[in-house]
Design brief:
Elements (H helix, E strand, L loop, with lengths): L76 H4 L17 E5 H6 L6 H8 L3 H17 L7 E3 L6 E6 L4 E9 L4 E8 L4 E7 L2 E4 L3 E5 L4 E5 L4 E5 L3 E5 L7 E12 L5 E6 L11 E7 L5 E8 L4 E4 L1 H24 L1 H6 L9 H4 L6 H4 L21 H7 L3 H24 L9 E5 L6 E5 L16
Helix pairs in contact: 3-4, 9-10
Amino acid sequence: MNGEEEFFDAVTGFDSDNSSGEFSEANQRVTGVIHVDTSKSNGIGKVGERPPQENGIQKHRTSLPAPMFTRSDFSVWSILKKCIGLELSKITMPIAFNEPLSFLQRITEYMEHVYLVHKASCQPQPLERMQSVAAFAVSAVASQWERTGKPFNPLLGETYELTREDLGFRFISEQVSHHPPISAFYSEGLHQDFLFHGSIYPKLKFWGKSVEAEPRGTITLELLKHNEAYTWTNPTCCVHNVIIGKLWIEQYGTVEIVNHRTGDKCVLHFKPCGLFGKELHKVEGYIQDKNKKKLFMIYGKWTECLWGLDPAAYESFKKQERRTDSLRKTRLDDCPEKADGDVVDAVPEAQETVQMYNFTSFTVSLNELETGMEKILAPTDCRLRPDIRGMENGNMDLASQEKERLEEKQREARRERAREEAEWQTRWFHRGSNPYTGTPDWLYVGGYFERDFSGCPDIY
């Protein structure tokens, strides 16, 4: 292990203990309900009768080759105690705290609920499209629940691709910068219905008992049929009890999703936990038009589901909720021990899911390497990393040795470029500005799926 490893992606994601990654389907108890049922994310219909494209595997694995390695013998505190208040940019962590995925694969989990994007593309009204886009944005955050493992830091030039004909998309990402660590991604619908792209640079800080990730980078979704582009950034993510106790996660902050064609905006407030955990996981917000008139209200939990209704009905609902809370508070004052229980999110744990790093069924398939895929993939693809493959197979000693070897190889390559006064050249993305916000971004240059990998670097 060495001091140059970057711990920038340790809290970018946690998943539900539901290994299928399912939210509860929204009940029909209010009008305008926003469905976020991830059971649909595994079947939006086949794309014609064509054979699978590129690495599109028809039947995906449902478990990992080996269960999760125990972390009970390792102390996070011994590593983090000197880092309070600092950015976690160069901290060495034992491999036992990793999960067998690269951060590039973690980003790909945005696509788990891509059926919401397809649904948005098919809806005729801007308000309905914004509802589905908002649900998609929240679903990406929801996939971060209960994942206590740190994904592997991508090596400079590392890539990951995924084609899923059953879900109607293909995806490519590249690690475009090492200091600071920046991951760029691009996805497109196989029906030419959407483009989804962005670059991610989370800034992490350790506060003694928790690790906080401040999101950096713009996420853009384009619905091509409607000539619409939506942009947003993710909320702040915080992992608690990193020293002692059960790890738990919260998301807080405001997310603004902007429709750059109509001027409509969706404002979502991710509530901090608060005293006794009353606000844990809650999301509240609204959709407004370009004149700031509220058109639709949204509420729910980012770990479960969202509901939506018109503003007048929502105000009536909130008044009733406040009266109910007042009565409930009176009862809690008589039973203080019950208030402590409110902090606990009572979701049953499936033991087999815990042993698989709390991966969803979608996530379990991300590092799958079928026979013959090596001939199709870029030589820089995450699936070919020997340290991640070793950990996935349960060989922790090999994984640790390979991780150190790859990091030293990366440092030597950087020293060689310094001696030659050469700059690193990205392959599939270039630095630029987001076409809708004007903010710095990394843009896809195209050509990856033509599969000319002759100029790819040797990073493994």
